[in-house]
């Protein structure tokens, strides 16, 4: 099957919101009056971001999910995306599964595939998403103020726990690995929460590299410091519920590493004035997304983490890259 047949068969779909979709030199999008376009790209590379034998349907889902997660963190509503694909061969069974996973999530969020590029080469997937947000209302990393509360959505650390097991660094019971692997391979972008946080959150980002490292980006751009309570973040990993129900022992240090520095969570970390506490809870309820207050923004620079004993912990687990050195 040639490149053009492949595109027509798997990636060309009826145009809905876009002015022009797949098939011409450029796609055309018309932003609505008073809206700004929010644009983000994320690339997934075989061997670096996913295992060569990963389920293609899940890979299609994840490739779009990580991009939608960026729109969520900006409080933007998904509109459309482009897909640049480098494929080692035209394996139709693989491509149709990949497209199914990708387009199912796209339909859930009414995000149209409007164009892209297809070439032979090592497996590599680059998606650019376009979203819209009322002018001036995008959630930025730079708005956190001393006294603001720090929040995270959902659960943290399970994706990293699964990765550690798949890399052979740790052993997990099969049922637990299956549960954690779901989080690694099929993350849920928190789009509805991002939209509900417009006008409430003072800053936001999505947790892709690990909570502490990502929070640090907010601190840097907002010129503030923070205190995070690990006694609140540590139990957020779903594996801790598994440990509570079974005889499986969850090492505290591993639990802390995964939740504080795990990566691949695609949850939102955001700040909001303490006076908006009830509004944040309402935004979480309205979007059916759990939200947990995990600390506060300080005027004093630096990131302080309260340990299990109530004293500040020493941690070098700023992000994924540092995890191995901890
Ligand atoms: P060009 O030669 O102008 O780069 P192409 O021949 O690469 O155009 O692509 C033809 C059309 O198919 C374009 O509209 C392009 O956006 C679209 N397209 C190519 N690859 C993909 C893909 N993987 N997903 C969606 N659309 C694609
Ligand atoms: Mg091209």
TrEMBL record:
Keywords attached to this entry: ATP-binding, Kinase, Magnesium, Metal-binding, Nucleotide-binding, Thiamine biosynthesis, Transferase
EC number: 2.7.4.16
Binding residue positions for Mg(2+) 4: 25, 40, 70
Entries under SUPFAM superfamilies matching the protein: PurM C-terminal domain-like, PurM N-terminal domain-like
Residue numbers binding substrate: 49, 264, 320
InterPro entries: PurM-like_C_dom, PurM-like_C_sf, PurM-like_N, PurM-like_N_sf, ThiL-like
Annotated binding of Mg(2+) 5, by residue: 209
Entry's Gene Ontology molecular function annotations: ATP binding; magnesium ion binding; thiamine-phosphate kinase activity
Positions bound to ATP: 116-117, 141, 208
Residues annotated to bind Mg(2+) 3: 25, 70, 206
Domain PurM-like C-terminal: 145-306
Family: Belongs to the thiamine-monophosphate kinase family.
Role this protein plays: Catalyzes the ATP-dependent phosphorylation of thiamine-monophosphate (TMP) to form thiamine-pyrophosphate (TPP), the active form of vitamin B1.
Name the record gives this protein: Thiamine-monophosphate kinase
Species this protein is from: Comamonas testosteroni
Lineage start: Bacteria, Pseudomonadati, Pseudomonadota, Betaproteobacteria, Burkholderiales
Recorded name of the encoding gene: thiL
